[in-house]
Design a protein that fits this description.
globular; single chain; mainly alpha; 74% helix
């Protein structure tokens, strides 16, 4: 049940923290591309990419647990909570990113980004059947459509989107979106009983170990240098901070109210790719996409804003 008395239910706090998480995830797009260059990972080196991701998430999970220890927290979890953490780690990190890295290797970046955005659709629709505060209404449906239109717009260029569908390409990206949505719903459930930082830290480590094993036995390798280690640490920090904040927000709010902000990830990714990689920025498209995503966020959150004002 939504915790109305928490600071993390206040609309402006939700917006600031959710957008920061999405900024971190968005920054990962150009950072990962730079990482591939620094680690000499080619476009078809799928298992190298999986090993790279596993290493990144292992460091991220370790960061969270180390900070928790330094803050004086007890990082032990109850035996009955371990199966839930294992399931979340396998679902949210292991399976999700295995599908993602194989999928993006077999489809275009534009199609991959657009299909990935269906995670928000899945999350809002599925959570409708699990949580009372996530019941669908006309405003939410319209908000989803408008937000998705923004994601499509920011990813389109003059060539448009080429047709075609493959199981290991577009199909795996669609499965990534579905497992991401299920992970958000399950995260909300177990975060009610376990410290949010422990949920995030352990699920990242558990999932990363699976990725590392798959990547290593698939033939993936990583050669470390002073440059790529710092890049890897930044990516780990981005994951650690984004997932930790996201888990806190999911614990205190409806799934739909939080996940709608994920429509902003490709927009952040587009801007930061332009800044870091000097990739072409689509002027009018990006501006209109920002407007559409902003409208969708307001529509999904408008009921929560009214409820918050009523409580005040």
């Amino acid at each position: 049940m939504e915790k109305k008395d928490s600071i993390f239910t206040r609309p402006y706090i939700v917006a600031i923290l959710a957008l920061f998480s999405c900024l971190m995830w968005g920054s990962a797009f150009p950072a990962i591309k730079v990482g591939y260059e620094l680690f000499n990972i080619g476009g078809g080196d799928t298992f190298h990419k999986i090993l790279f991701a596993g290493t990144r998430f292992f460091i991220a999970g370790s960061m969270i647990l180390i900070v928790s220890l330094l803050a004086g927290k007890n990082i032990k979890v109850k035996k009955e909570d371990i199966p839930g953490l294992i399931l979340l780690g396998i679902l949210q990190t292991a399976i999700n990113y295995t599908f993602f890295y194989i999928g993006v290797s077999n489809t275009s970046g534009t199609k991959g980004s657009i299909i990935s955005a269906t995670e928000t659709f899945f999350a809002v629709i599925i959570s409708n059947y699990f949580y009372r505060e996530d019941k669908l209404n006309n405003k939410k449906i319209i908000g989803l459509i408008i937000g998705f239109a923004g994601v499509v717009l920011v990813n389109l260029n003059g060539a448009g989107v080429v047709g075609g569908f493959s199981i290991t390409g577009e199909g795996f990206i669609l499965l990534t979106a579905l497992t991401g949505a299920l992970s958000a719903i399950y995260t909300k459930r177990i975060a009610n009983n376990i410290d949010t930082f422990l949920v995030t830290g352990y699920q990242l480590i558990i999932g990363s170990l699976f990725l590392i094993v798959v990547g290593y036995f698939g033939g993936g390798t990583l050669e470390f240098t002073n440059q790529n280690i710092w890049l890897l640490l930044y990516l780990a920090f981005a994951s650690a901070s984004a997932f930790s904040i996201w888990t806190i927000l999911l614990k205190h709010n409806g799934v739909g109210r939080v996940t709608i902000f994920k429509f902003s990830v490709p927009i952040f990714g587009t801007f930061l790719s332009y800044i870091v990689l000097n990739e072409r920025l689509l002027g009018p498209n990006v501006i209109l996409a920002i407007a559409l995503v902003s409208i969708s966020i307001i529509l999904i959150n408008i009921d929560g804003i009214r409820d918050n004002k009523t409580l005040e």
